[in-house]
């Protein structure tokens, strides 16, 4: 059976070049970067090389502005908790959006328990935050704004540059979760005007369990880990050298491949969207233009996304749905609900996220398999198409 992986926003396969680098730093050059001997020096060189590659990828002017973490979740936590703790004497108000990843939303909720106030701005039907609304939410005690660069469920790109402009005039720190954006669109911290930016290895053809946080020079954060003086006191713990070296290689390959990768993904995305919109009752979620080139999120009226997933899985196609199983009950995605979608439509949503390894044949295969699955489920459905 042909197997087609269309869940790159959940995780990506490791790039062969990245796997080779990881292997080297596990088996041959396994030293601790804090050691004085040759083994340690080799590890330290890998650390420096990777920091430079990641800095280059996001347009940071200095390599020291990059701190390595255990992934996107930790980067988001360090950015938000670290900034909140460092600035709590100035104020205790944070602005974020209703469509953030849970690594941001739940971190903000944890801070609410600690006496912070959080304003969650909403989005329009395409999942876009209005920069005006963010500006209006700014108060005298606002210390941080955290708005993602691109959404992991519907692929909508946020107007982070505009949001950051208003914030910087008021000396408010701006964090952006760029985990989904980094592998497939140019990302530049100067163009964006952000102070903090999160990325994750396994969403960019690197390994799981490693990520990075860009911290603009001069930005004070309180470390959330206590121990040794690693990462200039910003993140204690022996560095994950194989993971970090792999992340560095993933950053280097992304820089090399990005123009081609973007074009390739856009072509496949257009083909898949055009094919799916021919199916009766299928609606494209998210923004038509301000969108990641790899995201195709649809809703199909009157059927369950979970049932489509199972049907696709039986045919060797891996995708994901817009629902999450929380305590045994299927909860429609907070992102789709924030976009004003009904529970019923949100339950009928399906996310297909493309990657560098997908081909046109993969897309044509999906366009053969998926429409009959939707038809079959609809025949069994107790609902009527509105
Ligand atoms: C995957 C993801 C994260 C979490 O990253 P991990 O490395 O899996 O912890 C955070 N934000 C977004 C937008 C993501 O897609």
Task: Describe, in plain words, how this protein is organized in 3D.
This protein has 386 residues and is of the alpha/beta class. The chain has two domains: 4-12 and 258-380, Aspartate Aminotransferase, domain 1; 16-253, Aspartate Aminotransferase, domain 2 (3-Layer(aba) Sandwich). The protein contains twelve helices and 15 strands. A seven-stranded mixed β-sheet has the order 2-8-7-6-5-3-4, with helices on both faces. A four-stranded antiparallel β-sheet has the order 9-10-15-12. Strand 5 (142-146), helix 6 (160-169) and strand 6 form a beta-alpha-beta unit. The site of pyridoxal-5'-phosphate has 15 residues, from helix 3.
Features of the shown structure:
16% strand, 2 domains, Aspartate Aminotransferase, domain 1, four-stranded antiparallel beta sheet, Aspartate Aminotransferase, domain 2, binds pyridoxal-5'-phosphate, seven-stranded mixed beta sheet, 386 residues, alpha/beta
CATH superfamily of the largest domain: Type I PLP-dependent aspartate aminotransferase-like (Major domain)
Helical residue percent? 40-55%
Can you tell me the number of structural domains?
2
Tell me, what is the CATH class of the largest domain?
A: Alpha Beta
Structural class: alpha/beta
The low-confidence runs, each spanning 5 or more residues with pLDDT under 50, are none
Largest beta sheet, briefly? 7 strands, mixed
**Strand line-up in the sheet with most strands:** 2-8-7-6-5-3-4
Question: What is the N-to-C succession of helices and strands?
Answer: EHHEHEHEHEHEHEEHEEHEEEEHHEH
Bound small molecules, by name, code or SMILES, are:
pyridoxal-5'-phosphate
Task: Note the beta-strand portion.
Answer: 15-25%
CATH architecture of the largest domain: 3-Layer(aba) Sandwich
Rounded Rg: 21 Å
């Amino acid at each position: 059976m042909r197997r087609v992986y269309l869940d790159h926003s959940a995780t990506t396969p490791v790039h062969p070049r990245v796997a080779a680098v990881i292997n080297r730093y596990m088996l041959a050059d396994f030293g601790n970067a804090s050691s004085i001997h040759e083994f340690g020096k080799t590890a330290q060189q890998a650390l420096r090389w990777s920091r430079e590659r990641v800095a280059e990828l996001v347009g940071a002017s200095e390599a020291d502005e990059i701190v390595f973490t255990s992934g996107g979740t930790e980067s988001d936590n360090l950015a938000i908790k670290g900034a909140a703790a460092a600035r709590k004497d100035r104020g205790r108000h944070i602005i974020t959006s209703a469509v953030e990843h849970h690594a941001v939303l739940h971190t903000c909720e944890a801070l609410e328990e600690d006496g912070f106030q959080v304003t969650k701005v909403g989005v329009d039907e395409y999942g876009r935050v209005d920069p005006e609304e963010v500006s209006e939410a700014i108060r005298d005690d606002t210390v941080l704004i955290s708005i993602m660069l691109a959404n992991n469920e519907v692929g909508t790109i946020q107007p982070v540059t505009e949001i950051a402009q208003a914030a910087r005039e008021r000396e408010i720190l701006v964090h952006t979760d760029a985990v989904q954006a980094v592998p497939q669109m140019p990302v530049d911290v100067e163009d964006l005007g952000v102070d903090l930016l999160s990325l994750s290895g396994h969403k960019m053809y690197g390994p799981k369990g490693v990520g990075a946080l860009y911290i603009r020079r001069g930005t004070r954060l309180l470390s959330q880990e206590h121990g040794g003086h690693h990462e200039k006191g910003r993140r204690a713990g022996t560095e994950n050298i194989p993971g970090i070296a792999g992340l560095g290689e993933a950053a280097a390959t992304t820089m090399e491949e990005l123009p081609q990768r973007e074009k390739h993904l856009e072509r496949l995305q257009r083909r898949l969207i055009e094919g799916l919109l021919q199916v009766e009752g299928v609606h494209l979620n998210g923004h038509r233009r301000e969108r990641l080139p790899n995201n195709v999120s649809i809703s199909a009226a009157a059927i369950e996304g979970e049932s489509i997933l199972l049907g696709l899985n039986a045919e060797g196609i891996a995708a994901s749905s817009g629902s999450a199983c929380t305590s045994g009950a299927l909860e429609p995605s907070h992102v789709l609900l924030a976009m004003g979608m009904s529970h019923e439509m949100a339950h009928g949503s399906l996310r297909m996220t493309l990657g560098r390894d997908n081909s046109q044949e993969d897309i044509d295969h999906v366009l053969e398999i998926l429409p009959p699955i939707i038809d079959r489920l609809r025949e069994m459905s107790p609902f009527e198409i509105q």
